[in-house]
Amino acid sequence: MSQSARVALKSVVWTACLLPLLMLLHKFWADDLGANPISYATNVLGETTLRILLASLALTPLRLLFGISWQMSLRRLLGLFAFFYAVLHFTVWVVVDQFFNWAGMLADIRKRPYITVGMLALTLLVPLALTSTTRMVKRLGGLNWRRLHRLVYVASVAAILHFSWLAKKGRTDPYLYATILAALLGVRGWHWAARALGKRRMVALGAPSPQKRVAGAP
Amino acid sequence: MLIKRRPDIASSEITTHGLYLSRRAFIAGAAAVALGPSRAAATQTPSAEPLAAKPSPTFRVDDPPTKFESATTYNNFYEFGVDKADPSIYAASLRPRPWTVRVEGLGVRPKTYDVDELLRLFPLEERVYRLRCVEGWSMVIPWIGFPLASLIKRVEPAGKARFVEFTTLNDPEQFPGQKKNLLGFSSLEWPYAEGLRLDEALHPLTLLTFGMYGRVLPNQNGAPVRVVVPWKYGFKSAKSIVRIRFVSERPRTTWEKAAPNEYGFYSNVNPTVDHPRWSQATERRIGDFRRRPTLMFNGYADQVASLYAGMDLRKDF
């Protein structure tokens, strides 16, 4: 991909990722957040986190299924935006919703499964955000870095559970998100299984084992 | 806490409906110009028809009433859809007139009332009640109606009638939320069924309600007739009622059927009994910034606690 195409692509993604926040801020200033602004803001930020997280998890399946790879350069950007919205979502809960009621929040984290898994998802994203720089990738080494970043699978399952368990009955979107996540993880699982099977077959045939992939994505 | 001298807010200070409407029309017009066709423009202006009622000197709380706009745009009314904006967006699909309510059951000579006949049976009063939603938010609403007890005493159910069952209109043409979704699922089992113990239904706080904020009930708030049971979570107060039936067995309510471990038959507001998924200790009053502690029986403990004497409210939640 040419440099200008890369710049254009990243600009589009930046804009798309910032749009939900800008719309929220616009509604805030226009006093258009509805009767329960805190709940509205929390929901928008949480749902945006989920969407960007799923988008970041969709890049590898695109490569595995269609062999295209230009989108792989967006992984870090999308991952960091997901983390950014998760932190905003959490901040609104701590500052605006609970108003630093630490005892109450700790009790909720312990007692309420949907909050427990939500905290788990956010906590798992922290080391991923911290090791997102090129320097950290080099320091950890590609293999370790990839292993660490598989935590995103656990985090995304936790995030989906967080949403499903708090959503009221009759809402269909939690199922939709869960289905999308299952498909995105399923493509990976299928690919891994196929590869492992192929490797075993080659070993059985006495062929030299295939070279380790370096560019492979988690 | 309920017996009041003078309300802190004189009714003259509450925005008149005409002024409210003109403001609203202005805002809606501005929004339509600024945004083109949008949710703001799609939201239905609630009914303009005034409904005269004498303010009750006793049944009113101190707290300032919730903004009318909030009370008519932030609603849980699954018949219109699961989102809290859905009831105001789809309100126009409901036709609250002509409307009949069937009153029947044990010992009662069945009768079908026209809703306009029903609302003239007894003098209407305005009562300002707290409303606490099971989701953890609350409002303060000036309702208009008469005690359900007046109707019950008039129709004289038999002694073995121990419960009252309320049924909401079941008509997917008028209630788009009753349609099945693409996958063939309903959000709830229709028609919506609610119920009260007879002594709860006879309690002077239980209001058969035809209006709010000085006008007839807006569609999104359960037009043309609903009950209001202020010491219970909001979903216990059945809306858009087409049938009131006196029965001997405890009716199975819609939310009990949907999630029996989360929504009990009683569903009294109780800060010490949590919803399985979240705490009920606090609530956010719509319009407030900070959460506030939830009161036992929504602040009506003095009036209703005796109804549940000797009961384990953790078991009978």
Structure description:
Chain A is mainly α and 218 residues long. Chain A is 78% helix and 0% strand. Chain A has 9 helices and no strands. The C terminus of chain A is likely disordered. The N terminus of chain B is likely disordered. In chain B, the strands form 2 sheets. In chain B, strands 1, 4, 5, 8, 9, 10, 12 and 13 form an 8-stranded mixed β-sheet that branches. A 5-stranded mixed β-sheet of chain B has the order 3-2-11-6-7. Chain B is globular. Chain B has a single domain, classed as Sulfite Oxidase, Chain A, domain 2 (Alpha-Beta Complex). Chain B has 9 helices and 13 strands. In chain B, strand 12 and strand 13 form a beta hairpin.
What's the helix and strand layout?
The complex is a heterodimer of chains A (218) and B (317).
Chain A: H1 3-29, H2 37-66, H3 75-97, H4 102-111, H5 113-130, H6 134-140, H7 142-149, H8 151-166, H9 173-204
Helix pairs in contact in A: 1-2, 2-3, 2-8, 2-9, 3-5, 4-5, 5-8, 6-7, 8-9
Chain B: H1 17-35, H2 39-42, E1 54-60, H3 68-73, H4 86-90, E2 100-105, E3 111-114, H5 115-119, E4 125-132, E5 137-147, H6 148-155, E6 163-168, E7 193-197, H7 198-201, E8 207-212, E9 215-216, E10 226-228, E11 241-247, H8 254-258, E12 282-285, E13 292-293, H9 301-304
Parallel strand pairs in B: 1-4, 2-11, 5-12
Antiparallel strand pairs in B: 2-3, 4-5, 5-8, 6-7, 6-11, 8-9, 8-10, 12-13
